[in-house]
């Protein structure tokens, strides 16, 4: 079994308050790589980066900065017009992202947010924001993903129009420190199945939470928009299983989960109570490491995964 004291993922998880503060400091310096108010923007990525793109896009649109879509890079609709495309790629080497940027070169301004300044994305995008202070040694993404989201939140705050109902990034940092320090509940640590839920920008966080548990711990996890849970997914919930909500709870959802015999986890009841949803994701990251180590798995190097998906050239 891997030694938890040597688990890189755990160290990277606990560093997130620091990297989020660094993202806030960097927001002004990398503004050229971030969307301008009023632009029609597409944010793209793969895997975790796509889920962060979903969250960033919804935050920006809810803040009134302009229409913002998010796509997996492989599913980008090339017939649709945008004022700017922003690619999120930790490694800077992901094939689908580089192919997209190459295909649209010269037709629309492009930007990238990456962790590695020594990779092809530096040449593929018109402008680049490098968050090298959030790069990771582990294969599983934790702090880079949330630091990208922190960067977008800081950018919106600097523009003077944070999304309504979303607490300031500085509060999210404080909440992350709580999420790192507080013990995980026994009912969560011992559960055998997890359904993650979220509305608005929190849906992207729910998707990322489920992915993190699958990647690191091989756990049975699902994710849905919060209001869709009652349209079928609730049937999987029961004793020994968890429904975990990011953001405010729809009316009666806690009672519906209780009626199944499952455990309901809600990190935030609103902008002034509980944990910021981004900080609540930190608790899931910690849980994923806990489950991985308990199962004798290595959360730094999950099976079948590499730091970046680089495909062979087409014949």
Outline the secondary-structure elements.
Blueprint: H1 8-14, H2 16-26, E1 41-45, H3 48-62, E2 68-72, E3 84-89, H4 95-104, E4 110-114, H5 121-124, E5 127-130, H6 143-158, H7 169-181, H8 186-189, E6 193-198, H9 202-217, E7 221-225, E8 241-246, H10 253-260, E9 263-266, H11 277-294
Parallel strand pairs: 1-2, 1-3, 3-4, 4-5, 6-7, 6-8, 8-9
Helix pairs in contact: 1-11, 2-6, 2-7, 3-6, 3-9, 7-11, 9-11
Question: Would you mind describing this structure in some detail?
Answer:
The chain is of the alpha/beta class and 315 residues long. It has two domains: 4-165, Glucose-6-phosphate isomerase like protein, domain 1 (Rossmann fold); 176-294, Rossmann fold. It has helices at residues 8-14, 16-26, 48-62, 95-104, 121-124, 143-158, 169-181, 186-189, 202-217, 253-260, 277-294, and strands at residues 41-45, 68-72, 84-89, 110-114, 127-130, 193-198, 221-225, 241-246, 263-266. The strands form two sheets. The chain has a five-stranded parallel sheet with strand order 2-1-3-4-5, sandwiched between helices. It has a four-stranded parallel sheet with strand order 7-6-8-9, sandwiched between helices. Helix 9 (202-217) links the parallel strand 6 (193-198) and strand 7. The longest helix is centred in the last third of the chain and has 18 residues, at 277-294. It starts with 7 loop residues before the first helix and ends in a 21-residue tail after the last helix.
């Amino acid at each position: 079994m891997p030694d938890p004291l040597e688990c890189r993922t755990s160290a990277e998880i606990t560093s997130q308050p620091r990297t989020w503060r660094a993202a806030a400091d960097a927001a002004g310096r990398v503004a050229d790589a971030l969307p301008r108010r009023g632009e029609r923007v597409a944010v793209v990525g793969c895997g975790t980066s796509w889920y962060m793109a979903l969250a960033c896009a919804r935050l920006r649109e809810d803040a009134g900065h302009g229409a913002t879509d998010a796509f997996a890079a492989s599913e980008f609709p090339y017939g649709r017009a945008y004022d700017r495309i922003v690619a999120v790629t930790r490694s800077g080497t992901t094939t689908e992202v580089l192919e997209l940027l190459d295909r649209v070169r010269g037709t629309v301004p492009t930007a990238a947010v990456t962790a590695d300044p020594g990779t092809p994305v530096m040449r593929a995008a018109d402008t680049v924001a490098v968050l090298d202070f959030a790069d990771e040694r582990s294969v599983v993404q934790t702090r880079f993903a949330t630091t990208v989201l922190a960067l977008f939140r800081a950018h919106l705050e600097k523009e003077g129009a944070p999304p309504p109902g979303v607490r300031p990034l500085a509060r999210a940092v404080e909440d992350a420190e709580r999420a790192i320090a507080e013990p995980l509940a026994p009912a969560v640590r011992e559960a055998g199945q997890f359904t993650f839920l979220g509305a608005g920008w929190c849906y992207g966080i729910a998707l990322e939470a489920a992915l993190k548990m699958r990647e690191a711990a091989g756990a049975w996890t699902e994710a849905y928009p919060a209001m869709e849970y009652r349209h079928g997914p609730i049937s999987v919930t029961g004793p020994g299983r968890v429904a975990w909500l990011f953001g405010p709870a729809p009316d009666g959802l806690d009672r519906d989960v209780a009626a199944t015999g499952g455990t309901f986890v809600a990190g935030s009841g609103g902008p002034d109570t509980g944990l910021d949803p981004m900080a609540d994701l930190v608790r899931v990251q910690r849980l994923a490491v806990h489950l991985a180590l308990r199962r004798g798995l290595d959360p730094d190097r999950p099976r079948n995964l590499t730091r970046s998906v680089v495909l062979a050239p087409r014949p």
